[in-house]
Amino acid sequence: MQWTLDTNLIDGTRRVVPTGELDLVTAPLLARALVEAERAGDGDSPIVLDLTGVTFMDSSGLAAVLEAVQRGEEHGGPGRLGIVPGEGVVVRVLQLADLMDSLPLVAP
To answer: What start and end residues bound the annotated signal peptide (predicted)?
Structure first.
């Protein structure tokens, strides 16, 4: 599957939606999109990272997600960033890293 990255604003919430493989090549693109989403808001606008279309995620993809979570907690407070993990690969990576209970996961 080809990599795509969509960002949009719906009802005041910025959505960042990657599709395809989240790896060493694409993780920096996701990281940049998340930083841009953080800067585009007023500092406390919610951001949703929708990972339902991710078909593969390695440690660099996980690192990009964790860095965004950390920035969200430091600069926007809890609840600024929500992650939709989807099913399958992303959930499996989060389970293996023992992060399912510590990340701000939200329903689609």
So the answer is: none
Cβ 77 vs Cβ 45: under 8 Å: no
Over its length of 108 residues, how does the chain's per-residue pLDDT go in tens digits?
699 999 999 888 999 999 999 999 999 999 999 999 988 866 678 999 999 999 999 999 999 999 999 988 887 666 689 999 988 999 999 999 999 999 999 988
* Dihedral (Cα; 77, 78, 84, 90), 10-degree rounding: 100
Which of 61, 75, 32, 74 minimizes the C-alpha distance to 83? Answer: 61
The CA-based dihedral angle spanning residues 99, 74, 22, 8, taken in that order and rounded to the nearest 10 degrees: 120
Q: In degrees, to the nearest 5, what angle opens at C-alpha 66 toward C-alphas 62 and 67?
A: 115
Give the residue extent of every domain in the chain.
Answer: 4-96
Provide the H-helix boundaries in 16-108: 27-40, 59-71, 89-96
